[in-house]
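Quarterly update from the structural biology core.
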Amino acid sequence: MAEFTVNAQRFDPYKNFKFLVLWDGRIVAGVSKVSPLKRTTEVVKHRSGGDPSSPRKSAGRTEFEAVTLERGVTHDAEFDRWANKVWVVGAGAGSEASLRDFRKDLVIQLLNESGQVAVAYKLYRCWPSEFQILGELDANANAVAIQSLKLECEGWERDYEVPEPEEPSIQQPA
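Predicted structure, tokenized:
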């Protein structure tokens, strides 16, 4: 495991508006929003007959919530291609899905204000459970057309191999 040093020059936490999403080793185009990474561990209560009346608690099963990616609609078809591996209309009876390679590992990189990777998370065995190819259209609105991909995942972890970046210092001209 890599050794970490504390960046004594940085006092502020990282912002949530600079990030990248990668799958298949490539940056996914245009992702503008990622839902929270959240896991929940069930509480198992138990007690023996001679214990006090309050139960003991131990950890049970852990579940990872689905992660939703949102982006503006473009000609990039990566969301479509992945979602179509789970189910595609008109493929014929018995061939609507291709579950052979429908799972992917993802990486979410949080960037500092200088655009350097500060923190990264690895998401494992993700697959699309919900695909919204086109959001609401409104002729009276002034907004970007949004599509979303909801991904089930079987776990995630922080990538501790990502070192804290050495942030640049901007020198003012004399």
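DSSP finds one helix and ten strands in the chain.
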